[in-house]
Structure formats: structure tokens, C-alpha cells
UniProtKB/TrEMBL annotation:
Residues 732-824 form the Pilus assembly protein C-terminal domain. It comes from the Bacteria. Residues 284-350 form the Pilus assembly protein E-set like domain. Residues 1-29 form the signal peptide. This is Outer membrane usher protein EcpC. Keywords: Signal.
Amino acid sequence: MHLKGLNPGLKSLLASSMVSLLFPLSAAAETDKVQQIGSVIIPPAFGQALRDGMSVPLFIHLEGSTGTQDDQRIGNAWIWLDKGILRVRQIQLEEKEDNATLSEQPRNQLIALSDEAFNKDLQITLEDNAHLKLSLRQLLLQLVVKREALGTLLRPRSEDIGASSVDHLSSTLKYNLGIYNNQMRDGDNNTSSYLSLNSVTALREHHVALDGSLYGIGTSNQDSEIYKAMYERDFAGHRFAGGMLDTWNLQSLGPMTAISAGKIYGLSWGNYANSTVFDGTQSVTPVIAFLPAAGEVHITREGRLLSVQNFMMGNHEVDTRGLPYGIYDVEVEVIVNSKVISKRTQRVNKLFRQGHGAGAPLAWQIWGGSFHMDQWSGDGNETLPAKDSWLIGVSASGSINASSWAATGYSYDNNVVGETRITLPLSESISVNMQNMLASDSSWSAIGSLSATLPGGFSTVWVNQEKTQIGNELRRSSADNRAIGGSLNFSPLWSKLGTLSVSYNDDRRNNSHYYTGDYYQSLYTGKWGSLGMRAGVQRFNNSDSDGGLDKYIAFDFTLPLGNWFSAGMSHKKGYTLANLAVRKQFEEGSIRTIGANVSRAISGDTGDDKTLSGGAYAQFDTRYSSGTLNVNSGTDGYVNTNLTANGSIGWQGTNIAASGRTDGDAGIIFNTGLEDTGKLSARVNGRTFQLSGKRNYLPLSAYNRYEIELQNSKNSIDSFDIVTDRKSHFTLYPGNVAVITPEVKQMVTVSGRIRAEDGTLLANAQIKNHIGRTRTDDNGEFIMDIDKKHPTIDFSYGKNQSCEVVLELSQARGAVWVGDVVCSGLASYANSRPNGENNES
């Protein structure tokens, strides 16, 4: 056999195989006669190995390619010699992300092979585009394919997140507190308040959600209302929910504009599930590249290189997640061995959509139950009383090429309603959205909108039109509205120009309309900050009466260190105001933003309005709550004060913690055990969160996988050794609260000088502590890392004798010099060792 020309991997494989094959076998085997298969003479020992059966690697080889350097290993084959005939006993394929993919027919034929015989040329034909070829000289099996036999390695568009990582009962609670006070001009005042609570309790993927509010707390008008009390299980691509919820919380795929306010006691079932994650960042139309060997794919648009990606041999879908949204053409260049072997134009179709959106599979949902409709007041004196009815409906959504659609059909109170929504991109620059409703009581609605990007890509225009006619059953008002607006960025024409935004709204049913115009321009940007100018105008007309013209102009100064200042003038209600506003932002601390504003009338008749008005506010973000405090005095003389505070709580078993964040209805409790001043950071899916104190709660969005890594905080001089649970992985559903209890050692770098009780220096002595050891120098000085929980240094001498130094490190952080310390239990260092010898304990 010849080894020349083989790559190193195959040489190693051949060498290892031959060592085992040529190992001396039985005497009977060695006396077998020499056999020839194809053009290869088989030695007796090798022939016995073939009769016993052996494994050879299976490579895929593109027909027409020279050499084997570009072949990919795709599995193993078991071959054996049966009465002089070489056969394939079985083939096992290896699934790798970057492997070339076979089309369905040759793949199935390959897997189904069993005891198939090689012909005299050591080949097995699978189909016209693929055949197996055995090389006994190189001990490998090649699947030789034409391009047509290769399938396309597509990127998955959806994936189930899998089972929950939290096996214990847990719960999250979010709260929103608001307190309002209004001080009137005549001295009277009134106070109101509310507290909204949202709780989710879960056991693995099962959870119960409760949502309600308290109003007028502590007053005679105190009231409460439950908006949701629902069981839900959203798992493996299907969702079931049952219980009580209001119409605002009714989950459906399609539009439901004809359902009035009220409560629904029922259930829903469908495949519209958050547990299946759809990747809407890929192009709806796959961008495919064929590589005859390992190489690169370059994506360019209008001469600009957008992406460079590496692939193995085969048909591969290019990753388009990083490409801009829109519909446009790109040039796809395939480069192998520094040569462009193909170049063609392909279409990218990426449209931003909420939920499943364009390119998603068909989603459906069935829902219904008992519907309690609230009392309803329409136009004029029209009033309909509260009423009970049955409600049943079905919803579906999907996509066709670039367009997406949603439809809902439902019935209640002897009404049958059908609604549709279609989003259709007409081109790269123009998109149309249409929503329609038709009911059995002759009610109908048509809403259309169009958005367009003007040539040059620096301006946008949008148009909306709504026409709704309600019959005598549905609890909804008729409407006839139209609006048009746009944003024009003039800076591409001339860098010193700014952006103009305009809009016009016309409510023809109520005979009112208004238009607005705003212009912003940057005047200066430099090391001292930035200066910008804002100007705007608005005119409002109602029922043929002129509501007046309001206008303003202001100059905004953005200064370093989070400072902002604005000064300008405005005109409204017949008089002119001078306006001043300031704002200061802070990187750390409980108070994150403070601001104030003041306005004074400088011309015109203010009538009953006050000439001076203003206010102040502060935004806070503490460990347990975040919110805003506002105090405002208006031109009407009223003084309004309001406080809002938000936060969340998570618990699992005996673990409970709170946070000022309200990011989601799942979370993680970190039991770090740190002192109040200690800080760590948690890196969660690439985002960094600061942790402080013994216990922290981090709320997170449900239906997600999380990779968490604990690290030392960049905002602290403390140093920690995270012994266990440095990295964790969790899959969280609503209500799931995971607990991480790492073993954390707070490290302090301690330096000092150690002495015996008589004051003699422990020079060149080996000392140790809870986590390590070191040696003092000639002056008895040392430096070592110490765990604050075990602040003891030991020195051993003589026959099992020792002394120790107990350090006071409760307030120590980072590095500390402790000065002279005494090793208690050692009377004299001079007597602890033979003269002239260093201690080597």
C-alpha cells in the first residue's frame, strides 16, 4: 500500500489501523492463501480482519474534485469479507452543524444499506448522483456525489425552549404603587392612590397568574378589582389557559376590536405558544450559497461589504441575522482558496414583525366561555346595561412569502364577527397594512395604513385611514378618521440642516382636526457638550371653532457628567412664556435623575392664569423599589404632587428577595452571603447586573434560556473567589424563581510583619492560612491572600507545636497593611529552630 499523498489525518488513521491489523494472529490465519480484491493484494492477516469485520471512516467527496483534502467526514462504515465478496454491513452517519447535508433520497438509501456487496471496482451505486467508492489502500470509504445530491443546510426558524429548570414551587410578585394629591386654588385638596399587584405562582411549566388593583386606599371610596385569575401551561409548542380574565388580557392571534369591556370566564387552546421561539431575524427567503470545498461567503450590498462567513463543502444558508431589515438585493460571492468561484445576486427579505410575524408557520387558537359585559355608554345619551353572554372564537395567523396575515372569527350576544389583518410589503420602500371587521348586525370597519421611505433613504411618510360604521348591537362607537405625516431629514442634502416632522389628523365624525410641525437641528457638538435647537407649532380646531395656534422655540444644552439645560419661549392661549429647564443624571446612588422647570409669562393677557408656574421631579432606583416623585404648579393655580413606585419580589421555599426592577415574571435569587458593602456582578446572556449584600433578586423575562456567570464587580475594590456555581444555566417559565447559592470567599491581600511573643521576628518562616501558604522574608514580613471568613495565620514548629495570629479584617477591603502582629503561642522564635537553620515546617 502507498501512503504518499495522504493527508496527516488519514495517515494517522491508517497507521493505527495497520498496527491492529498486522498484530500476529493465529497460526491458522497466517497460513491462509494470499487473496486479491480489485487491484489490491490482501495479506492473510488483513484478510482475517476483513472476515471478522472492521470499521472505516466515511467521507463525502464532490465529483470532479481533485484530491481528498476537501473531503468531509460524515460517519463510519462497517465492512466485511463474506466468502470472497466485500460487503457493507452498516453505515452510521454523524450529525455535525457544519457538515454537508445529503438530499433525502441518497441519505435514506445510505442508512438502509445492509450487507450490500461492492462490485469489482469496489463501488456501490446509490442513484445517478451518488455512489460509494472503497479505497483499500487508504482504508476509507468515499460517498462520491454530484451537486444535485447535496441538500441545503438550512438554519432553524423555530425551537422549543425545553423543560423548566426549576423543580420547586416558586412565585413572583410585581407591584405598582401610585399616590396623587391635588391642591386647589381655594385651599381644598384631594388625595387618591392605587396599588396594582401581579402575581405568578409556578410549579415547573404550570403556573397560576393573579392580577388586580386596589383604588382609593385608606379613603371612603376604597375599591378593588381582579383583572386576571388564570391557570396556564405553555409547553412544547402548545398553550392551554383557563380561568377568569378581562377583555384587555384576552390572548388571541388576530384582531378583536368588536369585543366590549368586561370579564371572560373560559379557556383557550392552540399552538400559539411562547415556549416555541421563532427566529424572525433571518431573511424570510433563504440566501443560499454552494461551496465545492471549504471556503468563505462574502455578502455585499451596493459595494458595501456586510458580512463574511465561513462554511464547509455543500449548500448552506447564509446567516442573515446581522443584515439590515428591509427587502433588497445582495451580491453573494463564494471564495475558495482565495479565488472567487461564483457570484450571483440574491434577494433579502427581512421585515420587522412583532410575535411570529412574516415567515412563521401557521398558528391557531380556539377560545371561549362565559362573557360578562360591562355597562356601556356610547355617543350622546346612548347607554346599554351590563349583560351576560356566551363567547366562542377561533384565531389564526401565518405568512405568505413576505406578507403576514391574521384572522379571527367569534360570536357573542347573538352577533357573529369576522376580522382580518394583512401586512403586505409592496417593495423595499413601501409597506401596506389593512385591517377589516364585519359583523352580523351590519357593523363594519376598514382601517388602512401605508408607510414609505422616500428615495435616498433619509425620509419617511405615513398615511392612515379609518372608517367604522356600527349597527345596533355591538358596543362600539363609529369613527371616521384620517391622518398623514412624515419625517424629513435634510442633513444628507446639507450637513448643517436638521430634521422636520409634520402630521395632520382629521376626525370627521366629531368635526375636529389639528396639525403639528416640529424641527430639530444640532448647532454644536464638541468637548464642552452639545447644543441643539427645537421649534414647533400646533393648531387645533374643534366643531368649526378655532382653537388657536401654539408655538415654541428652545435651545438645549447637553453638558458633560449628565447635565442638561434648556431655555426657550412658547406661545399659547394668547400670551408668551419664557421657559427654563434643567436636568442632572447620576451614574450611581439611589437618586438617578433630578430635574426642574419654570415658566413665566412675559407678554400678553394671561387672564385668570398665573404668570409663574413650574415643577420639580426626582427619579429614584433603590435596591427594593424604583419610581418618580413629581411636584408641579400649573398656570391654573393647582399644585399637583404624585409619587409612583415599582418593584418585584421572588421566592422559592425559604428563599425570598426583593428588587426595584420589574423586567419580567420569572427571576433568579442570588444567595451570595456577602456583607452589605460587598459587591459582585452577574453576567446574564451578555448583560451585566450588579449584586450587593447577602441576597439579591433579579427579575427576568419568562420563556427564555439563560446563561449566568458570577464575576467580580468592576465597581468595587473587593476581590472574591467564587468557588462553586460560578456558571449556571436555566430555562425559566412564568413564576419560576431559580436560586443560586455560590460558595464565595471574600479575599483580602494582607501584608505585615509577624513576631513571636518576645518580639523576635519570624524571619524566613513558612506560614499558612485557610487557603494557602507563603514564606516571610529576612525581616519577618509577609504578603498573602486571606479569606475574610477565616482571618487566621498559623505557624507550626517543633514537635506538633503551633501558634496563630488572628487578624481583624471585618472592615478590610482589597489590600491592607496590618503592621506588626504577634503569633500567640510562640514565646520566642529563636528557640523554635536549631541555630543557623531556617524553619521548614
